[in-house]
Amino acid sequence: MSEEEEIDISPQQTYEELENELNLKQLQLKSLLAITQAINDNVSADGLFNMYKTFINWDMRVDRMVFFVREGEHWICPASINVDYDMTGYGLIERLSKYTRLQTIKQEDQDPILSDFDIVIPVMHKETPLSYTLIGGFQEEADIFNKVQFIQTITNVITVAIENKRLFKEQLKQERVNRTMQLATEVQQMFIPDKLPKEINYQLDSIYKPHFNIGGDYFDYFQLNHHEFIFCIADVSGKGVGAAMLMANFQALLHNMVNKYESLDELVGELNHAVYTLTKSDKFITFFIAKVNTDSRSVSYVNAGHCPVLYTHADGQEFWYSGCTVLGAVNNLNGIECGNFNYSPGAIIMAYTDGLTELENSDGEFFDEDHLWAFGFTYHDLTAEKFNQMLLSRLDNFRGDIAYKDDIAVITCKLT
Questions:
Q1: What is the fold of 3-168?
Q2: Please, what sign has the CA dihedral across residues 267, 232, 348, 356?
Q3: What is the pLDDT of residue 91?
Q4: Residue 293 neighbours by CB distance under 10 Å
Q5: Domain locations in the chain as residue ranges
Q6: Predicted confidence band of residue 43 (pLDDT cuts 50, 70, 90)
């Protein structure tokens, strides 16, 4: 070939190469702008997956592709080209985990399931994979390197956009949960008494430690006349707004009924029927109620499936169990047992919800009834307020750095 012929051909080749490269760059820029605009327009995840598939197949002229995206603890395959079998099976993700950067799938150690693919493109966040793209079968051999580099860029953009959508959904979900818990807290706080009486013949004091997963702990007090009063404590099954709303309904029922029935067994029976009508046994309530007569120094009580109530005084102590099953489990309660006794001056009655005895320390030990028994035996001579203060101090020492895992409610009655 002569020198003149070489001069005639070389510029033409250079021109065609530059024109192809320019066209590829324009195509890449157009694709990038289109995907970026779609992300800015908050196009759905499915829309972005379809755009990615079209970009790989038509713009980059690729015959085979599989795109994996992490969805929480699982992986999904939202986009693929010319793949007819389930690529999420066969433990494939575990085998792809060895790839932490764009890499050619080597023939000498190629997994048989990957035989149709040439390149793997992982997208990582620190050491955690967010997506994997498998590519095989470029229709045009020219500019493969540049195409692969740009595919990696688009894959990064799409993956980050999808991950941001996922994180945003999780944030919204958490905000709804937080709002639900806040609403439940507000409902519950409306019905928890701010103050309890401290009279000559008796004192009432309370502890209330709400937890984030707030439920339906409730306690209350009713002055019936100058010598009789009622105090009670309840725990609604479940958590959140549902439990708080049932507790609010129960509080309204109790306030409406408490002066209508002379005996506690009748009152508890009617409360049970009302709760069952509301819930159809879908939820239930544990309940303890006591009526105190300071003139006769007598107490009557019903324990409806609630935690055993501690009665402690200078001459001894016991747990109170007498009553019936939980409220709301059945339509009619038969054989409600009402406990009756005369109290000794200086006695303490302490009722609590199960968050107290389920409190756990770092050794896996619970603040169970044995701990309560020992505590009551030691501190029964204190006022109701001092008794609860010492109990809180004991609980804090017991749990150490372990957080409260449930609501704790305590109502303590000192009888003088």
A1: Beta-Lactamase (3.30.450)
A2: positive
A3: 74
A4: 16
A5: 3-168, 181-415
A6: very high
